[in-house]
Amino acid sequence: DGGITQSPKYLFRKEGQNVTLSCEQNLNHDAMYWYRQDPGQGLRLIYYSQIVNDFQKGDIAEGYSVSREKKESFPLTVTSAQKNPTAFYLCASSRVGGYEKLFFGSGTQLSVL
Amino acid sequence: ILNVEQSPQSLHVQEGDSTNFTCSFPSSNFYALHWYRWETAKSPEALFVMTLNGDEKKKGRISATLNTKEGYSYLYIKGSQPEDSATYLCAFIDSSNTGKLIFGQGTTLQVKP
After folding, report:
1. How, if at all, do strands B10-14 and B107-112 pair?
2. How far apart (Å, rounded) are the C-alpha atoms in residues A88 and B44?
3. Per-residue pLDDT, B2
4. Is the pLDDT of residue A1 over 70?
5. Which of B29, B32, B36 lies closest to B93 in space, CA to CA?
6. Which of B6, B45, B51 sits opposite A99 (nearest CB)?
7. What mean pLDDT do residues A69-92 have?
8. What is the mean pLDDT of chain A?
9. Which residue of A has its CA nearest to B89?
10. Ramachandran bin of B75, using left for φ above 0, alpha for ψ from -120 to 50, beta for the remaining angles
11. Residues 6+ apart with CB under 8 A from A60
Protein backbone atom coordinates (compact mmCIF):
# COMPACT_ATOMS: atom_id res chain seq x y z
CA ASP A 1 0.00 0.00 0.00
CA GLY A 2 1.28 3.44 -0.86
CA GLY A 3 1.63 5.85 1.99
CA ILE A 4 3.75 7.97 4.22
CA THR A 5 5.42 6.55 7.33
CA GLN A 6 6.70 8.44 10.32
CA SER A 7 8.77 6.96 13.10
CA PRO A 8 8.96 6.74 15.97
CA LYS A 9 5.45 7.41 17.25
CA TYR A 10 6.81 8.71 20.56
CA LEU A 11 10.25 10.20 21.21
CA PHE A 12 11.89 11.58 24.30
CA ARG A 13 14.73 14.05 24.22
CA LYS A 14 17.20 14.82 26.96
CA GLU A 15 18.42 18.35 27.36
CA GLY A 16 21.27 19.17 24.99
CA GLN A 17 20.53 16.20 22.76
CA ASN A 18 19.76 16.20 19.04
CA VAL A 19 17.04 13.82 17.90
CA THR A 20 15.95 12.83 14.40
CA LEU A 21 12.40 12.13 13.26
CA SER A 22 12.01 9.87 10.27
CA CYS A 23 9.62 10.41 7.35
CA GLU A 24 9.43 8.03 4.39
CA GLN A 25 6.95 7.98 1.49
CA ASN A 26 6.38 5.58 -1.38
CA LEU A 27 3.88 7.74 -3.24
CA ASN A 28 6.51 9.00 -5.70
CA HIS A 29 5.85 12.56 -4.55
CA ASP A 30 8.39 15.27 -5.19
CA ALA A 31 7.27 17.61 -2.41
CA MET A 32 7.60 16.87 1.31
CA TYR A 33 6.83 18.97 4.37
CA TRP A 34 7.33 19.09 8.13
CA TYR A 35 4.71 20.70 10.35
CA ARG A 36 4.57 21.20 14.09
CA GLN A 37 1.40 21.30 16.17
CA ASP A 38 1.12 22.75 19.65
CA PRO A 39 -2.06 22.51 21.74
CA GLY A 40 -4.66 25.03 20.60
CA GLN A 41 -2.65 26.02 17.55
CA GLY A 42 -2.78 25.13 13.89
CA LEU A 43 -0.08 23.37 11.92
CA ARG A 44 3.02 25.51 11.57
CA LEU A 45 5.47 24.88 8.73
CA ILE A 46 9.04 24.04 9.73
CA TYR A 47 10.69 23.07 6.44
CA TYR A 48 9.58 21.95 3.00
CA SER A 49 11.24 20.47 -0.05
CA GLN A 50 10.04 20.36 -3.62
CA ILE A 51 12.89 18.38 -5.11
CA VAL A 52 15.75 16.18 -4.02
CA ASN A 53 18.77 18.04 -2.61
CA ASP A 54 16.78 21.25 -2.13
CA PHE A 55 14.65 22.52 0.76
CA GLN A 56 13.32 25.82 2.11
CA LYS A 57 12.71 27.17 5.58
CA GLY A 58 9.15 27.52 6.72
CA ASP A 59 7.87 29.90 9.36
CA ILE A 60 9.53 28.27 12.40
CA ALA A 61 12.78 26.73 11.13
CA GLU A 62 15.03 27.91 13.96
CA GLY A 63 16.43 24.98 15.95
CA TYR A 64 15.61 22.42 13.25
CA SER A 65 17.49 20.95 10.31
CA VAL A 66 16.50 18.68 7.42
CA SER A 67 18.04 16.81 4.52
CA ARG A 68 16.59 15.53 1.25
CA GLU A 69 19.12 13.12 -0.19
CA LYS A 70 16.48 10.73 -1.53
CA LYS A 71 13.07 11.41 -3.02
CA GLU A 72 11.43 9.03 -0.55
CA SER A 73 12.96 10.41 2.63
CA PHE A 74 12.85 13.74 4.49
CA PRO A 75 14.24 13.38 8.03
CA LEU A 76 13.89 16.21 10.54
CA THR A 77 16.52 16.81 13.22
CA VAL A 78 15.49 18.70 16.32
CA THR A 79 18.69 20.25 17.58
CA SER A 80 19.63 21.35 21.07
CA ALA A 81 19.10 24.93 19.87
CA GLN A 82 15.34 24.30 19.81
CA LYS A 83 14.46 25.36 23.34
CA ASN A 84 10.82 24.30 23.29
CA PRO A 85 10.72 21.08 21.27
CA THR A 86 7.77 19.40 22.98
CA ALA A 87 5.11 19.15 20.28
CA PHE A 88 3.41 16.85 17.79
CA TYR A 89 5.27 16.67 14.47
CA LEU A 90 3.55 15.81 11.21
CA CYS A 91 5.21 14.98 7.92
CA ALA A 92 3.36 15.29 4.61
CA SER A 93 4.01 14.78 0.93
CA SER A 94 2.36 15.81 -2.32
CA ARG A 95 2.91 16.26 -6.01
CA VAL A 96 4.44 19.64 -6.72
CA GLY A 97 1.97 22.50 -7.15
CA GLY A 98 -0.50 24.27 -4.91
CA TYR A 99 -3.45 22.43 -6.46
CA GLU A 100 -2.18 19.09 -5.16
CA LYS A 101 -3.54 17.75 -1.88
CA LEU A 102 -1.22 16.74 0.93
CA PHE A 103 -0.95 13.22 2.28
CA PHE A 104 0.04 13.07 5.95
CA GLY A 105 1.87 10.61 8.14
CA SER A 106 0.57 9.56 11.54
CA GLY A 107 2.87 11.91 13.44
CA THR A 108 5.54 11.81 16.13
CA GLN A 109 5.00 13.12 19.66
CA LEU A 110 8.26 14.56 20.97
CA SER A 111 8.66 15.21 24.67
CA VAL A 112 11.53 16.55 26.72
CA LEU A 113 12.77 14.52 29.70
CA ILE B 1 3.63 35.55 8.09
CA LEU B 2 0.29 35.36 6.30
CA ASN B 3 -2.73 35.09 8.56
CA VAL B 4 -5.35 32.38 8.13
CA GLU B 5 -8.17 32.44 10.67
CA GLN B 6 -10.84 29.84 11.34
CA SER B 7 -14.01 30.32 13.34
CA PRO B 8 -15.42 29.16 15.56
CA GLN B 9 -12.55 27.43 17.38
CA SER B 10 -14.91 24.67 18.54
CA LEU B 11 -18.49 23.66 17.98
CA HIS B 12 -20.85 21.20 19.68
CA VAL B 13 -23.97 20.12 17.78
CA GLN B 14 -26.61 17.42 18.05
CA GLU B 15 -26.83 14.56 15.59
CA GLY B 16 -28.90 15.66 12.62
CA ASP B 17 -28.05 19.36 12.95
CA SER B 18 -26.56 21.15 10.00
CA THR B 19 -23.57 23.35 10.69
CA ASN B 20 -21.03 25.56 9.01
CA PHE B 21 -17.73 27.22 9.80
CA THR B 22 -15.47 29.80 8.25
CA CYS B 23 -11.93 30.14 6.99
CA SER B 24 -10.65 33.69 6.40
CA PHE B 25 -7.53 34.38 4.39
CA PRO B 26 -5.78 37.28 2.62
CA SER B 27 -7.87 38.51 -0.34
CA SER B 28 -4.81 39.34 -2.44
CA ASN B 29 -2.48 36.92 -4.23
CA PHE B 30 -4.90 34.00 -3.94
CA TYR B 31 -3.71 30.73 -5.48
CA ALA B 32 -5.60 27.91 -3.78
CA LEU B 33 -7.41 26.92 -0.59
CA HIS B 34 -7.37 23.43 0.88
CA TRP B 35 -9.73 21.84 3.42
CA TYR B 36 -8.66 18.86 5.55
CA ARG B 37 -10.44 16.72 8.13
CA TRP B 38 -8.43 15.43 11.09
CA GLU B 39 -10.07 12.75 13.18
CA THR B 40 -8.65 11.83 16.58
CA ALA B 41 -5.82 9.26 16.40
CA LYS B 42 -5.76 9.47 12.59
CA SER B 43 -3.86 11.51 10.01
CA PRO B 44 -5.39 14.59 8.39
CA GLU B 45 -7.14 13.80 5.12
CA ALA B 46 -7.88 16.14 2.24
CA LEU B 47 -11.50 17.12 1.65
CA PHE B 48 -11.28 19.76 -1.05
CA VAL B 49 -8.83 21.84 -3.05
CA MET B 50 -10.47 25.05 -4.23
CA THR B 51 -8.94 27.26 -6.87
CA LEU B 52 -11.49 29.62 -8.45
CA ASN B 53 -13.65 32.38 -7.03
CA GLY B 54 -17.18 31.05 -6.70
CA ASP B 55 -16.02 27.43 -6.54
CA GLU B 56 -18.40 25.05 -4.83
CA LYS B 57 -17.28 21.53 -3.95
CA LYS B 58 -19.30 18.67 -2.48
CA LYS B 59 -18.43 15.30 -0.96
CA GLY B 60 -21.40 13.47 0.48
CA ARG B 61 -22.95 15.66 3.19
CA ILE B 62 -20.00 18.07 3.23
CA SER B 63 -19.72 21.02 0.89
CA ALA B 64 -17.56 24.12 0.62
CA THR B 65 -17.76 27.51 -1.06
CA LEU B 66 -15.07 30.00 -1.92
CA ASN B 67 -15.01 33.79 -2.17
CA THR B 68 -11.50 34.93 -3.10
CA LYS B 69 -12.42 38.60 -3.52
CA GLU B 70 -13.45 38.95 0.12
CA GLY B 71 -11.11 36.27 1.43
CA TYR B 72 -13.29 33.57 2.95
CA SER B 73 -14.43 29.99 2.49
CA TYR B 74 -17.34 28.24 4.21
CA LEU B 75 -17.51 24.55 5.02
CA TYR B 76 -21.01 23.13 5.48
CA ILE B 77 -22.04 19.81 6.99
CA LYS B 78 -25.64 18.77 6.40
CA GLY B 79 -27.27 16.47 8.94
CA SER B 80 -24.21 16.02 11.16
CA GLN B 81 -23.40 12.49 12.32
CA PRO B 82 -21.13 11.42 15.22
CA GLU B 83 -18.55 10.23 12.68
CA ASP B 84 -18.23 13.84 11.48
CA SER B 85 -16.59 14.69 14.81
CA ALA B 86 -13.11 15.92 13.91
CA THR B 87 -10.97 19.01 13.55
CA TYR B 88 -11.43 20.73 10.21
CA LEU B 89 -8.41 22.62 8.89
CA CYS B 90 -8.12 25.06 6.03
CA ALA B 91 -4.83 25.95 4.33
CA PHE B 92 -4.15 28.98 2.12
CA ILE B 93 -1.62 29.17 -0.69
CA ASP B 94 -0.28 32.52 -1.84
CA SER B 95 0.55 32.88 -5.53
CA SER B 96 4.03 34.19 -4.69
CA ASN B 97 4.98 30.80 -3.20
CA THR B 98 2.83 27.92 -4.37
CA GLY B 99 4.95 25.38 -2.49
CA LYS B 100 3.88 26.61 0.92
CA LEU B 101 0.53 25.90 2.63
CA ILE B 102 -0.40 28.14 5.57
CA PHE B 103 -2.86 26.44 7.90
CA GLY B 104 -5.49 27.98 10.13
CA GLN B 105 -5.81 26.81 13.73
CA GLY B 106 -8.77 24.58 12.91
CA THR B 107 -12.39 24.19 13.99
CA THR B 108 -13.08 21.23 16.26
CA LEU B 109 -16.55 19.77 15.75
CA GLN B 110 -18.19 17.47 18.29
CA VAL B 111 -21.45 15.79 17.23
CA LYS B 112 -23.49 14.35 20.09
CA PRO B 113 -25.69 11.32 19.38
Report:
1. parallel
2. 13
3. 73
4. no
5. B32
6. B51
7. 95
8. 94
9. A42
10. beta
11. A36, A44, A45, A46
Q: Does A91 contact B at CB distance below 8 Å?
A: no
pLDDT score of A98: 84
DSSP A10-64: EEEE-TT--EEEEEEE-S--SEEEEEEE-TT--EEEEEEEEETTEEEE-TT-TTE
SS3 A68: coil
**How does pLDDT run across A30-46, given as a tens digit for each residue?**
999 999 999 888 899 99
pLDDT at B106 over 70: yes
CA distances from B49 to A78, A104, A108 (A): 31, 15, 26
Q: Tell me how many degrees the CA angle A39-A106-A66 measures, rounded to the nearest 5.
A: 85
Tell me which residues of chain A, numbers 31 to 60, contact chain B at a CB-CB cutoff of 8 Å.
31, 33, 35, 40-45, 48, 50, 56, 58-59
CA atoms within 13 A on the CB side of A103: 18
What is the predicted pLDDT for the residue at A15? 85
Considering only CA atoms, which of A100, A75, A8 is closest in space to residue B98?
Answer: A100
Residue A11 has pLDDT above 70, yes or no: yes
Q: What is the pLDDT of residue A103?
A: 97
